[in-house]
Amino acid sequence: MVGGSRVVIVMGVSGSGKSTVGAGLADLLGVPFLEGDDLHSASNRVKMASGHPLDDADRRPWLAAITEWIRITASSGHGGVVACSALKRAYRDEFRRTGANVWFLYLALDREVAEKRMTGRSGHFMPLGLLDSQYATLDPLHADEPGVTIDINTSESPAEVLAAAVRAVAVAADSSSLPRHMPPG
After folding, report:
1. Which phi and psi (to 5°) does residue 169 adopt?
2. How confident is the model over 37-72, as pLDDT tens digits?
3. 8, 103 in Cβ contact below 8 A?
4. CB contact at 8 A, 119 and 46
5. Which of 119, 81, 106 is nearest to 184 (CA)?
6. What is the pTM of this model?
C-alpha cells in the first residue's frame, strides 16, 4: 500500500492516538515506525512535564531529528510511518522539503474528547495542562497538503481508527484524487 519511499506522518494533538495508530499502521504495512516523542530531548520532556509548552526554539532540534529520519527512511526506498504532532504547517513543510513522498494522516479530535483520553492514560510526560496550548498551536491539515483528515471523535476503539487509517492509505496509494476527510467507521 505505501510502497516506494512514502513516509506517512500520523499527526494530531496529544491524546489523539498517533502512537497507537502509527505503530499499528507501520506493522501492517511492514515498514519502519518512528515514535516522534522518543526524539524529544530530556530538557524538552522536563519542560513539558512541568507544565510549560515548547516554543519553536525548543522544537527545532526535535524537528531536525524527525526530518533526518524521514530523509534516511525515504532514501532506503521502503517508506515508513512517523507519529508526530506536526501541529504547524511550517513543521509539515519542513518534512516535505526532504524530497520524500510525505503524506499526512491527521487524527482530528475535539478538545473535550482529547481531555477525556488524556485523563485516562498514565506514564506519559505530556500533562493535561498543556492541551490548550496544543489546540492554540494547531494548524489543521490544509487542502493543498498531501493527506487526509480522519474525524476520530466518535470512534469506538483504536482498532476502528486503525482500520480507517489503513483505508485512507490504501485510497491514497490507488488514487490521485483523494478524499480530504474520512469517517473512522
Report:
1. -65, -40
2. 899 888 888 888 788 888 899 989 999 999 999 999
3. yes
4. no
5. 106
6. 0.84
